[in-house]
Write a sequence for this structure.
């Protein structure tokens, strides 16, 4: 009988264990709930622990402990906080400027589309002859009398004037219809007015009719980004390479260089212990 009791846990021990585990879980949950409140105290504790030897050192040289503590905290504040206040805004501004230079300028034109016919018109997607132009807001469904706004964007790939043709493709009563053609100029010396204009230009979509703000628009001067310029340079270099060495036609120099660089990078990573 005594051996069985000594070899196992009695009821009171099990109850105490359950209560202890429950208390630990409750305390852990409380700490997790107020973790954001405890964070400053945790940082203060770590700083005080790390800086305590310096305070003791100053006190050993006959400096008042309170004065030593205030001096150490002032030094830490000057070293950590002041540079952050001065550097972070500059760093954020520099990063935004770098992103702007990499991506380049972008112009937008809001074109209102209104269905003036008696059947529902769907505009599904667009096609453009140049990568400089895109359309946001598709697909749209326009019932009779309904209107919506499409945003035509211009992200120049080169500095030269660009003449693009954008086709808005759609259907009427599930039948594919003739696309709506837009003529868009980019980097044009005489840009169009960017004010949103009420739709007044009538175009046909099957048996229905659609009103547009305009079928033509000219964007002013916008600078291309570095990425676009590098892409255009690679394209020009590729064309010159194919003209000089016809047997290399179809050989993509940029892709080959990228593959080689990626291979070297992976090899270095594999050799790194």
């Amino acid at each position: 009988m005594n051996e069985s009791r000594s070899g196992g846990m009695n009821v009171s021990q099990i109850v105490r264990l359950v209560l202890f585990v429950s208390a630990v879980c409750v305390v852990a949950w409380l700490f997790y709930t107020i973790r954001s409140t405890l964070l400053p105290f945790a940082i203060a504790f770590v700083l005080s622990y790390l800086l305590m030897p310096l305070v003791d050192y100053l006190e050993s040289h006959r400096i008042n402990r309170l004065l030593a503590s205030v001096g150490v905290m002032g030094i830490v504040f000057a070293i950590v906080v002041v540079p952050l206040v001065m550097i972070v805004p500059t760093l954020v501004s520099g990063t935004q400027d770098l992103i702007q230079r990499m991506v380049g300028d972008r112009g937008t034109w809001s074109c209102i589309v209104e269905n003036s016919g008696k059947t529902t018109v769907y505009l599904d997607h667009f096609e453009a002859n140049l990568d400089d132009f895109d359309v946001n807001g598709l697909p749209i469904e326009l019932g009779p009398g309904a209107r919506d706004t499409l945003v035509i964007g211009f992200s120049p790939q080169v500095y030269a004037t660009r003449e693009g043709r954008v086709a808005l493709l759609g259907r009427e009563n599930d039948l594919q219809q003739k696309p709506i053609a837009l003529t868009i100029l980019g980097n044009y010396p005489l840009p169009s007015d960017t004010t949103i204009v009420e739709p007044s230009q009538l175009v046909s979509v099957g048996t229905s009719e659609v009103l547009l703000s305009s079928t033509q628009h000219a964007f002013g001067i916008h600078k291309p980004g570095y990425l676009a310029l590098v892409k255009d340079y690679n394209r020009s270099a590729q064309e010159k390479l194919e003209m000089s060495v016809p047997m290399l036609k179809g050989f993509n120099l940029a892709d080959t260089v990228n593959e080689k660089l990626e291979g070297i990078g992976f090899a270095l990573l594999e050799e790194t212990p």
Summary: The CA atoms of residues 66 and 220 lie 65 Å apart. The domain at 107-218 is CATH 2.60.40.10 (Immunoglobulin-like). The longest helix spans residues 65-103.
